[in-house]
From TrEMBL, chains A, B, C, D:
<feature type="domain" description="Peptidase M20 dimerisation">
    <location>
        <begin position="184"/>
        <end position="275"/>
    </location>
</feature>
<keyword id="KW-0378">Hydrolase</keyword>
<dbReference type="Pfam" id="PF07687">
    <property type="entry name" value="M20_dimer"/>
</dbReference>
<dbReference type="InterPro" id="IPR002933">
    <property type="entry name" value="Peptidase_M20"/>
</dbReference>
<dbReference type="InterPro" id="IPR011650">
    <property type="entry name" value="Peptidase_M20_dimer"/>
</dbReference>
<dbReference type="Pfam" id="PF01546">
    <property type="entry name" value="Peptidase_M20"/>
</dbReference>
<dbReference type="GO" id="GO:0016787">
    <property type="term" value="F:hydrolase activity"/>
</dbReference>
<dbReference type="InterPro" id="IPR017439">
    <property type="entry name" value="Amidohydrolase"/>
</dbReference>
<protein>
    <submittedName>
        <fullName>Amidohydrolase</fullName>
        <ecNumber>3.5.1.-</ecNumber>
    </submittedName>
</protein>
<dbReference type="InterPro" id="IPR036264">
    <property type="entry name" value="Bact_exopeptidase_dim_dom"/>
</dbReference>
Length: 384, 384, 384, 384
């Protein structure tokens, strides 16, 4: 896609930046070198840096009107994955790699920062630039920044993801639920063990667990609105030590996903009710604990329609794609729980980006970076 | 088996009697013609007839010592089955037939009555002769007679069954549980119906029923002592009317069997607990009703060992067989709940009796009737 | 909503027509009086009537350009429901009523026909007016018309539903899956019956059915993409006759819904695989038969975007609503399997239409009929 | 129970021997010190020692007639249990203890050996004295001795167990199945893992395992004759590693018990059929492996009736008890698979023996040892 709008220099530098980040990936919460790079650049651009806890960096640029403030966000952390492949700028940090594309997000937002520092006179609202730590883990870096007040004067927030699952040349989003919640759970079933030859003197927690796991299926099949999406997966079951002893307990752990807070609540509430009730029916004791992760990412309709119109006007009707929600998660959802805004996929799937996110051979297609830069700039310019 | 002990006349008449009963079968509770026959015979034999409600007949013979009283019991009812076959004395009552052998029991006890009326001087205890109505149905004829006081002065009671499932030439019993309880149940699962396309707005009673039925298996597999025997069978399930409507309710009916009162209690209690508990876990309401039938038939050890010694002494060690319990039921169990006693199988399986009880071609082997008569007489003679 | 576009006369007559149809509802396949009314009107308007089997009526109007042909469709059948309420134009046909709003659809399309007969010079494409019988039943009236060739020269087809589930004042659609498939199924589980006290000599089809039903839940919870929507509901289970007999067979009937042909295929294939496989594992024989109903209604993206732009331009951006799919079905889906097109909801939910479709108190809000008329007209005018 | 039959000296020495063995317990297969003690004693008694692999010792005593040969067996191994309590002759071998009573069995058979060496002229048959290693483990010491030919010339074999589960003062056995088989199993369910948020791309082995485990219950509840006894217990389930990954496999291990070879076969065959069939239905692969342990111990009727008559004659009718089978196992079953014989419980339950076998506080009641000695002697004397 031709993109004269963003000039050659800006693009060249963005790609150089991205490769630097790619070679120097840092794990969630440890992005100190990355932050130093960002700070240096923002300082060089004379962009004000707000006072937030590292390793996140928050820049601020006053708008020409300044009666509104929007935040643009990039996540900056890498993953504990060993990169595979032979490109010249492979990760130099063994066991750590930018296998989700956050290097591209960071470079994009730095380019946007540079553009704003030069062409700020074209932009009415104040701009908060969020270079956010720790997207990939719990506790979430977004949640932390919000608690520190990053959204205090923000009217709307926008974020992007360079997205392998969407065709290169397309940019889009949903007008509502877009990415799933991620919560983990632990179920403890307390029975009463004994010898395998005398089951009648025991409460067999393995047998009880089969009823519990079967009942979890029915939450999806019978209790969730079929229009909604949700997943409950037991990832691990631990019970017993040997052939002939019925154990005291069975422990199940797993994950649940849903696209709306209501669906998350349905899944969790039914999971507790069924586990406790079924265990009790069998004289066992069931307990469910949730390890709350990321809420579902739900775009705000007004902002998502604004973004749609930006895409249609700035890139063409053909570029816009109404996205199907995905069951992956993203901590940008925290921002959208607090303020209006929208999250946007910039498609890059194709020959140059053919492995899914988190795959050891994942790569971004750098050719879509200019569009990502342009998208943020257009949002900044058009937001009222 | 040769049997000079009981004389030719007695045997000939017993077989004639049996064929008369076979030709004139009457359903449970309607054995009036049969009773008239029995009363006439007892009166002819000058045997006292006690005053009990028809259609049962209770005879009484004073013993030489008379410090103890034993009851000998025959059941007299037939079954609502159309007999098949071509023997000359087929049932003349369409749709009703002695397909369980009670005709043989009645004839046997009449022969015993005749012997006692002649040789009473050889018998020390008083003898109560119970010709009992309604063994095959609920409410039980045995239970009814007991409530009328038939066991009041009885010290012990003995009964026999001519048994196709045991080899001809063998006579035997257990020293404990011998025949199963029979109780029926009805489970009502009250859910909340709705359209098949919107399961999340319903409580689907058919789905809940699958958990309940699965849990019933676990009562047998996990809650009953493996040494004990028990069965829970759902015979019928009724739920719903059409393709696309989730119904409000599911109704299950079935039967339970066990060999000891403790096992019966375990099955019933767990059935209630699991049904109610599981239904509640799924927001449904489960209710279990029992249609109490026949208790398990459990021989009393002292009396069963007495019978074993009678068999060994009067018929030989080879004739005695320690019986495996059977899952069929028999309302003789009511007598054994109230008084000591034992129930005995007189084997007749073989060429002349090859179809199981209740089969439309079932027949007794009349050649074992002399042994049945002799068994009762020996019990009467040897009981102290 | 003010609507000067469609003149007073047209609106008044549409409402009168609608009330006439409401008072004279006819069941699916029996819409002969309704068709007579339609034919008379079209003839009065000098609109050509194409030769299709009754009780559907197909009108044809030549466009000014005529190089393209679009079809506009109304369904005309009523439901076997007894209407409740007290409006002056209640159904006069006992047990039959327009409880889905097809009376409104028919009146709308007649008004469109009249407008076209007058203002046809404003419309470039040829217009096929489909007054379709038998939307509510299987076999589908749409399918029948297609087989008779109604779509032969049609380039695109559009249909509407006055929709209680959408707020009055909104008009909208999806850009893909919009309404569910409807297929019914019958599962026969052939076991081997016997006496309830001897389960080991049987293959208990009721028990096997519990595994089959449980496994059906897992098709939704484990085999359907969580992003997709699907339902499998067992509506009825029939097995057994009495307490103590394990029956030979269990029969389950139910319905399945999904929003895409791929999801329908997944549900059906897995249902067959699991039923047959599980039954076989238990020595039973499982057979699944599908009663194929209506395919999922999936709008074609190009035509749905065209309709979106028509709505935005003719009614305003505020009126357009991107619709969430619904699990109800609609045989308009057959047209969309054959030709490009889109189905549109005209919102009428509110005080005047507060009961859901098929409810005995369901009513349409006649105030939205002018918009429905206008929508069809604008589609006809703008289609290229 | 007074027991003048066996003289004071013999009893005193038996108790001393028993305490020696109790203080010097050895694990299965390692009974070398125990064997040295036995050999020394037999040699001192001038009893011929047959040539069998240690650590078992086989003695041989010629009978007066010698036309028949019977074997009497004691098992000699201890358990890997740390004894609790404060008796003066506690185990001196840390972590190893005679917590099943084999010390008593060994001392009993040594006393029998001494009696035979003195009073051999009262005994007609040849006597093989089997001091058997490794009863508690698989592979079984009995099986090993049989393969070495220990039963070659043996006409019948008898063994005892001092039995805590039976009242002191009672001696008894069954006339058929008496102790359960012990076989272990391993079930591997091979599914196909993936991310917890995308169950539709996996074959979830944990979910499949719930159907398999549920189906195992039905083997007991629906496929085993209710009169028979059987247990299938899953002791351990292993599947998965973390919250959000559906694993490739689930592994179940457990134990099965039954009282007859036919029941064992039913359990095993159905387990294989159901596991393989259910897994296949779900696109997984199920494999069942059995670790064959001990067959069910089934007394031979002729020999068990012989033992019953010995008990009745030598101890009194009150002492004999017809035993209910137990679900524990015993490798004496191997002998009974090869030769006629019977296994006998010598009751010792009461104040002096109140903890069950294998409990760390288990103890035998030494006062029943004289009866055990007498029982073996009477069997030897009366066998013809």
């Amino acid at each position: 896609m031709q993109n004269i709008y963003v000039d050659e220099h800006l693009i060249k530098q963005a790609i150089e930046d991205r490769r630097f980040f790619h070679q120097h990936p840092e794990l969630s919460g440890e992005e100190f070198e990355t932050c130093a790079f960002i700070r240096n650049r923002l300082e060089a651009l004379k962009i004000e840096i707000l006072d937030f806890e590292p390793p996140s960096v928050i820049g601020f640029i006053k708008g020409t009107k300044g009666n509104k403030t929007i935040a643009l966000r990039a996540d900056i952390d890498a993953l504990p994955i060993t990169e595979e492949g032979d490109k010249p700028y492979l990760s130099k940090n063994p066991g750590v790699a930018h296998m989700c594309g956050h290097d591209g997000h960071t470079a994009t937002l730095l380019a946007v920062a540079e553009w704003l520092s030069i062409k700020g006179n074209e932009v009415e609202p104040n701009i908060v630039l969020i270079f956010q730590s720790a997207e990939e883990i719990t506790p979430s870096g977004a949640d932390r920044l919000i608690k520190q007040g990053v959204l205090e004067n923000v009217d709307a927030i926008f974020g992007i993801h360079l997205w392998q699952g969407m065709e290169k040349g397309k940019i889009g989003l949903t007008h509502g639920p877009m990415m799933a919640s991620i919560d983990d759970f632990e179920i403890m079933i307390q029975g009463s063990g004994g010898h395998g030859s005398m089951p009648h003197e025991t409460v067999d927690p393995i047998y009880v667990a089969t009823h519990v796991i079967q009942s979890l299926q029915s939450i999806i099949s019978r209790k969730l609105n079929p229009i909604d999406s949700g997943v409950i997966s037991v990832g691990k079951i631990e019970a017993g030590t040997t052939y002939n002893i019925i154990p005291d307990t069975a422990k199940l752990i797993g994950t649940i996903r849903a696209l709306t807070p209501e669906a998350v609540a349905t899944l969790q509430n039914k999971m507790v009710q069924l586990t406790e009730g079924i265990c009790k029916a069998f004289d066992a004791k069931g307990q469910v604990d949730f390890i709350i992760g990321t809420p579902p990412l739900v775009n705000h309709a007004k902002e998502s329609h604004f973004v749609e119109s930006v895409i249609r006007q700035s890139f063409g009707d053909d570029v816009f794609e109404l996205v199907d929600p995905v069951m992956g998660g993203e901590d940008f959802s925290y921002y959208l729980q607090n303020k209006p805004g929208a999250f946007i996929f910039v498609g890059m799937g194709g020959e140059k980006s053919m492995y899914p996110h988190h795959h050891p051979k994942f790569d971004i297609d750098e050719e879509v970076i200019p569009d990502a830069i342009k998208l943020f700039i257009e949002i900044a310019k058009k937001y009222q």
